[in-house]
Amino acid sequence: MKLLEDRIVKDGIVGAGNVLKVDCFLNHQIDVALISELGKEFYRRFQGEGINKILTIEASGIGIACLTAPYFNVPVVFAKKSKTKNIAGDVYVSKVTSFTHGTTHDIIVSKKFLNKNDRVLIIDDFLARGQALLGLIDLVEAAGATVVGAGIVIEKSWQEGAKLIRERGIRLESLARIASMDVDTGVTFVKD
Amino acid sequence: MKLLEDRIVKDGIVGAGNVLKVDCFLNHQIDVALISELGKEFYRRFQGEGINKILTIEASGIGIACLTAPYFNVPVVFAKKSKTKNIAGDVYVSKVTSFTHGTTHDIIVSKKFLNKNDRVLIIDDFLARGQALLGLIDLVEAAGATVVGAGIVIEKSWQEGAKLIRERGIRLESLARIASMDVDTGVTFVKD
């Protein structure tokens, strides 16, 4: 999506260790006009699929999901990162490993908010190794619901996440796909 | 605001220990159509005040802020709850005590996203003891920016937060003000 790629080139900062800082429009300060355009694009790609719920994960996914949901006229559910030990009961639980932080934590969603009739679009800001997204897919499948697809703002295409998601049979739509990036030369996008 | 009060009566669940669960429309599942109406109401109350930025705190505030910001046509900045020790530098830091969780943690915002010319509307889901909101006010004032006001979805009016905020000279607009609540009899609102 050219609007997004142009913004990444203009305002994204490539740091050491494969870090792309987009905190001035995506995940600390949020340019709601831009994100609303991304939401419209997710709608263009996924409309007609009978989506009745958008699932994301706190914190950075929430704004994107909330600015996408009005186009679909559906509620948002956000999974929570749990600090406490969860006993089986009123929540679905999945484990997510963060390679960035070197930690594993539970993500949870209340059983009240996912059920077998749901057709779910999963939204998140980044896809790299795919662990958070795989965790969200697990939550939907634990509920017996259907993952219609995953809408990602920025995919780091050289990492394994995109491949892992497609191997699970999940339709993946990433609005910007980065082929490579470098502190000196910046970002190169995948040519479609 | 009657629309919100009616929804709290219909779907809110009063639990032991002054807990009001509104996770089916506000802070786990998000009814974006309802929250967008709340955003419109914040705009009605604060328009004409030259607001150029909305500040909130992760995670529950983000959706509300993002559905309010389009009316003002301004960006959202969300403060982060920091798990790491912050050395003075590129972020403003404030301490917030959570009585619910019995913890104190730092909240931070990048200095890039608050500056002295900003006229800031602070948005959050709940106001009870007021510690999170006071922390957000501290961040704005540390930047030399102006707090135009605070927009809260649900105020627990019998707790000290609302009084503390008004004593700081901050304009406070809460869309639902709960006078008292009880597991058996439910919620009573403040009569205006």
Summary keywords:
Rossmann fold, two-stranded antiparallel sheet, 8-stranded mixed sheet, 192 residues, homodimer, 30% helix, alpha/beta
Structure description:
The structure is a homodimer of 192-residue chains. Chain A is α/β, with parallel strands linked by helices and 192 residues long. Chain A has a single domain, classed as Rossmann fold (3-Layer(aba) Sandwich). The first copy, chain A, contains 5 helices and 11 strands, in the order αβββαβαββββαβαββ. Chain A has an 8-stranded mixed beta sheet, sandwiched between helices. In chain A, helix 2 packs across helix 3. The longest helix of chain A has 15 residues. Chain A is globular. The termini of chain A are close together. Chains A and B meet through strand 3, helix 2, helix 3 and strand 5 of A and strand 3, helix 2, helix 3 and strand 5 of B.
Helix content of chain A: 25-40%
What is the class of chain A in the CATH system?
Alpha Beta
**What spatial order of strands do you see in the largest sheet of chain A?**
6-7-5-4-8-9-10-11
Q: What oligomeric state do these chains adopt?
A: homodimer
Mean pLDDT of chain A: 95
What's the number of domains of chain A? Answer: 1
What is the CATH T-level topology of chain A? Rossmann fold
Order of helices and strands of chain A: HEEEHEHEEEEHEHEE
For the record, the CATH architecture of chain A stands as: 3-Layer(aba) Sandwich
Structure, briefly:
Two copies of one chain form a homodimer. The first copy, chain A, has 192 residues and is of the alpha/beta class. Chain A contains five helices and eleven strands, in the order H-E-E-E-H-E-H-E-E-E-E-H-E-H-E-E.
